[in-house]
Amino acid sequence: MTTTSNTLRTWAPALGVVALIALTLTALAVLGGRTLPDRTGPPVEELAVERTHLTQGEITLTVRNTGADPVRVAQVFVNDAYVDFAGGDAAIDRLDTETLRLNYPWQAEQPYHVSILTATGAVIEHEIDAAVTTPQADGGFFALMILLGTYVGIIPVVLGMLFLPTLRRIGTRGVRVLLAVTVGLLAFLAIDATLEGFELAEKAGGAFGGTALVVLGALLAFLALSALDHRLSRGRTEKNGLRLALLISIGVGLHNLGEGLAIGAAYAVGELALGVTLVVGFAIHNTTEGLAIVSPLTQRRRPGIGTLLGLGVIAGAPAILGAVIGGTVTNTELSSFLLGIGVGAIAQVIVQLVPAVRDKAGRLLDPATVGGATAGLLAMYLTGLLVTA
Amino acid sequence: MTTPESPEPERTGPSRRRFLLGGALAGTAGAAALGIGGALSASADGGRTPGGPGHGGHGSAHGGGVHGPMFRAGSTVDHEANGFHPTELLRDFDYGTTSRMADGRILREWDVYATDEEIEIAPGATFPAWTFNSRVPGPTLRCTEGDLLRVRFHNGSEHPHTMHFHGIHPAEMDGIPGVGAGVIEPGASTVYEFDAEPFGLHLYHCHVGPLAEHIARGMYGTFIVDPKQGRADADELVMVMHGYNTTFDGEGNQLYAVNGIPFHYMHEPVKVRRNELVRIYLVNTLEFDPINSFHLHGNFFEYYPTGTRLEPTEFTDTIVQGQGQRGICEVRFKHPGQYMFHAHKTEFAELGWMGMFEVTE
After folding, report:
1. Under DSSP, is residue B62 helix (H, G, I), strand (E, B) or coil?
2. Helix axes A318-328, A305-316, angle to 10 degrees
3. Inter-chain CB proximity A76 and B72 less than 8 Å
4. B59: buried, middle or exposed (CB in 10 Å: 19+, 13-18, 0-12)?
5. Tell me: domain B13-41+80-226, CATH 2.40.50.100, correct?
6. Cα–Cα distance, A180 to A182 (Å, whole number)
7. Vertex B60 angle, CA B55 and B65, to 5°
8. In sequence order, which ranges of chain B are alpha helices (DSSP H)?
9. Three-point CA angle B112, B115, B119, nearest 5°
10. Which class for B204: exposed (0-12), middle (13-18), buried (19 or more C-beta within 10 A)?
11. Four-CA torsion A62, A65, A70, A71, nearest 10 degrees
């Protein structure tokens, strides 16, 4: 009884405040708007093209209204010629999407400039850098995406993990340096993904937050992985090598999801140079990720081959998922959000790794670890130059 | 993307037009334009239905994909709401009201009204136009060499305007700022009075700065001075080539047209008779692009530059006109059927400046 009345005493004022806020907001919505003058400027008409789908004789655009006002599509012209089109008969409200199907005999590999004439005479433009038939999401497409994801994700990571027997012989000091190398590798990945996420988000029009989405994804992932770490380590105080390796796998996996996205999206618009450069470039680049995963396993008893493979799949397989999403959805805002998640995951892993880099006196940055981190950064930078997607 | 602020926040073209032209200013030409709009309402939405039995439904089949440019299939402009119809403008000559003076000369008088109009220039897209007599292009003022002309100009627009005629006249009748009546402020009126000379095909337009904008907003029209002896009987047509810079960036146009509405004569071909002499008064008032052109399919025409000589200078199927240039094209169609005409600057054609002649017996 006392508990109930205490609870009531705690929450009743809060409920009162919420009710007051709701009442005030309603009053503002009903009356407040009238106390302000209308906007003096013209309507803000913005459409972001989220998806360009090309089939023979037809260009299909999925547009989203990212501006403040409804947009009514009056006519459309492509490379300075008006075209017959379907869709977009009604005004598109803020954040709504609409599909415009343009009847236009486009030619492969040529650039196209699509201009959407709105009801007010404004022109919203969209560039198609080089027209390529959009791949159909059929069995062959999925098989190709799985193959690509396996090449750039699973195989290199597992290859990197083959260094484990060597790493086990290098001693405590060697392990500290190695972990520093891993921190360097991961830091570079985080920076790289952040920049890529910001670049993508800026293209998207910002209706869903733009670059803030990248930051949001990063923070959410960081918090989620922190909670996961807390749960995994419950009841144990010492650092467990396998737990750390698992966290690194998850972080790297979330990063590879973003990498897969980029590959899938580039393939969908015909920009991806498939072939030896792509596969070998990614293989060398991502082999370092495998190295990062096994680096905490040096002081533990030898892990089973199944465990290692499992870690490899956790780190590599998201590249497959990413490639499939990137090749079919091509939603730039989703992509930037997922890139942000990868960044947050990696940041969390770095936080996990740092204590293990300290020496017995608690020092973090001695010449050996600084050298290691530098080597890690440079390794990622240099191998990143080999990657074309 | 945004458009610069519209001078007219309201989108009520017809009612605004009636308001401006109502009351004391019961303008004859403006009222006539309204009447035309009303009379044509039945055909306004049927633009894509085949015109007649003669062409077996072919009339609606133009455009789309490899068949060429077009607006969204089935979409047409509401000519009734616009208050003018391009098919009517073709043969709409405004001779004004005439009276004979003591010396025997003809005195020819017009009332011309400047108004601001929201015009649907492509299906679904409106343009805040400045107009003469609520139409784009303005009325085709037609007279005979030697007439005394008196144009009473009333500015019902919210912006200052003038009427500047091409022709031979005293400086104070030139319709430019600072000379004669100068700029005519909103609500004010003036009278431009001068002799009709030389004979030929001319034009008039507003001459207030910024000049390109005042013209591009729609303030231009055709001014025909017939030679005293007249010209041979013909089916006479006026074609004013122009454009709309809907973004107001002053860098080219988003839409190109003859007589107000892009692609209109693709939906409603210009009907002419086989072997009859067809005379086209062709005027170029296009802004922002340095040249315009006219090309006729399946035929050749005699070309009279500026119409100031009675002998043609060229027998051709394509001519080029710079800004303000004009000329008369005379043609007979030897064979029945549909013949395209368009700017041979094909970019303009595909952005609206194309049409069809339909030749019948």
Report:
1. coil
2. 20
3. yes
4. buried
5. no
6. 5
7. 125
8. 13-21, 28-39, 41-44, 79-82, 86-89, 211-216, 264-267, 346-350
9. 120
10. buried
11. -50
Residue B36 confidence (pLDDT) above 50: no
Work out the average pLDDT over B57-65: 59
Average pLDDT for B282-291: 96
- Which among B211, B20, B254 has a CA at the least distance from the CA of B132? B20
- Of the candidates A72, A84, A117, the beta carbon closest to that of B254 is on A117
Prior bond to B198 cis, omega within 30? Answer: yes
Q: What is the pLDDT of residues B197-210, one digit of tens each?
A: 999 999 999 999 99
Single-letter amino acid, residue B316: T
pLDDT at A205: 67
* Domain A47-128, CATH number (from 2.60.40.640, 3.40.50.2300, 2.60.40.1890, 3.30.559.30): 2.60.40.1890
Q: How far apart are CA A21 and CA A16, in angstroms?
A: 9
Does the interface ipTM go beyond 0.95?
A: no
pTM value is 0.81
Verify cis geometry, omega within 30 degrees of 0, for the bond prior to B137: yes
8 Å CB contact of B4 and A42:
yes
Measured in whole angstroms, the distance separating CA A63 from the mean position of its chain's CA atoms is 21
d(CA B59, CA B337): 11
Of B261, B296, B273, B277, which is closest to residue B358 (Cα–Cα)?
B273
Q: What percent of chain A has pLDDT over 70?
A: 93
DSSP assignment of A35-52 equals GSPPPSS-----EEEEEE
Contacts of B3 in chain A (CB under 8 A): 42, 120-122
Report which of residues B259 and B45 the model is more confident about: B259
Measured between its terminal Cα atoms, the distance across chain A in Å is 65
Nearest CA-CA distance, residue A327 and chain B, Å: 27
Q: Which amino acid is at A313?
A: V
Is residue A64 within 8 A of residue A50, CB to CB? The reply is: yes
- For chain A, list residues whose CB is within 8 angstroms of any CB belonging to chain B: 40-46, 57, 72-77, 80-86, 103-105, 115, 117-125
> Within chain A, which residue ranges are assigned CATH 2.60.40.1890?
47-128
Question: For residue A151, what is the DSSP state?
Answer: I
Q: At what angle do helices A305-316 and A276-294 cross, to 10 degrees?
A: 130
Which of B10, B55, B119 is closest to B336 using CA atoms? B55
Distance of CA A39 to the CA centre of its chain: 37
Please answer whether residues A288 and A130 qualify as being in contact, where contact means their C-beta atoms are separated by less than 8 angstroms.
no
What does CATH list as the number for B232-360? 2.60.40.420
pLDDT in tens, A318-341: 999 988 888 887 677 888 888 888
> Quick check: A121 and B244 CB within 8 A?
yes
Contacts of B4 in chain A (CB under 8 A): 42
Q: Which residue in the set A43, A104, A117 is minimally distant from B246, CB to CB?
A: A117
CB A367 within 8 A of CB A256: no
Confidence bin at A300 (pLDDT 50/70/90): low
Segments in chain A forming alpha helices (H): 2-31, 139-149, 155-161, 164-167, 171-203, 211-232, 241-268, 276-294, 305-316, 318-328, 332-357, 367-384
Chain A: closest CA distance from residue B34 (Å): 24
